[in-house]
Amino acid sequence: MSRTAGLGHRPPEYERPALRAPARSALRQRIPPALLGAAAAVGGLMFLPLAYLILRAGDADAGSWDLVLQPRTLGLAFRSAALAVCVTSASCAIGVPLAWLTARTDLPGRRAWTVVVALPLVIPSYIGAFALIGALGPHGMLQEMLAGPLGIERLPDISGFPGALLALTLFTYPYVYLVVAAAIRGLDPSLEDASRVLGRSAWATFWSVTAPLLKPSIAAGGLLVALYTLHDFGAVSLMRYDVFTQAIYVQYRGAFDRTPAAILSLMLVGLAGIVLVLEQRARGRARYYRSGAGSKRPITAVRLGRWRWPALALCCGIALLALVLPVGVIIFYLARGLAGGETLALSWSAAGGSIAVSASAAVVALAAALPVAFLSARYPGRLSSAAERLSYTGYALPGLVVALAFVFFAANFTPVLYQSLPLVVIAYVVLFLPQAAEPIRGALLQMSPRVEEAGRALGKGRLRIFGSLVAPLIARGAIAGGGLVFLTAMKELPATLLLRPTGFETLATRVWTGATAGLYSRAAAPALLLIVVCAFPLYGLARRVEVREMQDVDVRAE
User: Fold this and answer.
1) Which terminus of the chain is more solvent-facing, meaning fewer CB atoms within 10 Å of its CB: N or C?
2) In which domain, by residue range, is 188 found?
């Protein structure tokens, strides 16, 4: 059982002998060579972009390294860190309550909201930022609606930090929502019952029992949001907020010497390393599984009572800003284009290419994430910590940098992979591996090592234990991780533009082609198709983390 501060004592099934080191004995065992070798292979792949940056930075002279301490560079670091902290905090403030409301309460239309509040994940940040500017900007659609009756000629400018914060929060909070919702479904409600039996109120039980059990999942979702914010380019560019990714992009595209861009990229990796250290400290060393025996009964539904309608208003407000508004703007431009004589050209071939390469990346990312997650969750130490941090290297870097790294290595060492679909898949895996690893690790942290010990005591081999005992218990986390990789790969743009074979297109590249040419009505059709195509797997993913079997028990705060 996890640490539950505030409980005076434990019921008999959670007596202190059940908390002794059998779990730790599993953690102290020698790391299996196969697991170590697989994790090392994944680490080697993840190290390639970092190696590319080190090679580039190694050619720098003293003047280039002076860039690190320049006021503008320090300002970029501060703004990048501030944006990541604020977006992560706001995403957790939205995602955790939504996960709780849709998974554990009698929220009206709970099953429908389970899907609706996850749908903003299918909207690329650059499309969402463009929609926010088009709707809420100084001369946007809202201003046009207010100009007639109220005479308003200009609205406040939302660009800069507020706009970047709003755009990234609205379209990244589902990372927190989906990971935490999957964790809530895996909770053992008897732990909360034990606290209630001891006289604790619903709120005290939540903060002392439930919240600590969700701690690794909240940290995992928050980590994904923080690193996504650090490597995002589209939203911050449209909102004109200067961060590392913008400076790196300008250096790579506008300067012949790419050494300064490599140095800035290494600084971004260092910033991501700080985020990882903070996440590990926040996660702590607590165990988040039940040590006692017994089967888990159905989860109980919390009756919201007088909070029912405010909770419904929260869901409606988030859905309006993060889903209805951007989709409405896209439909507006599509309708304007059709009225102006544009043809409705749905890019089915691009949709097929997007699905094929993204699904392949999801499968490969899951295979690569398993050894990293197992090493981190079951064998904590310096080696596993180093492997875990290395696996986040690509996720912290802009897609442009990762793509250039693979162009360099493919052109010089593996020309057969140059401008091939396998190279695109490999780049996606490097970019999005943490999205697959974090949900799996969260599921492993909630699963007692005694499950594996029992299998070994029965004489089963490690592969058989994994297939028959472990895999079913972490399947929810694996599905969530694979789904996140698929959805994010569908939206990836810079790496696809640089690495794709000649003639190969995805929906993201079609959207970019139309938007950069200023033909927003032409970009609207593939953008809308991208959202529709992504909505189907997201629907399955959201329903997968939904809790269907719940007992209606009133546990309102006293």
Assistant:
1) C
2) 49-287+325-553
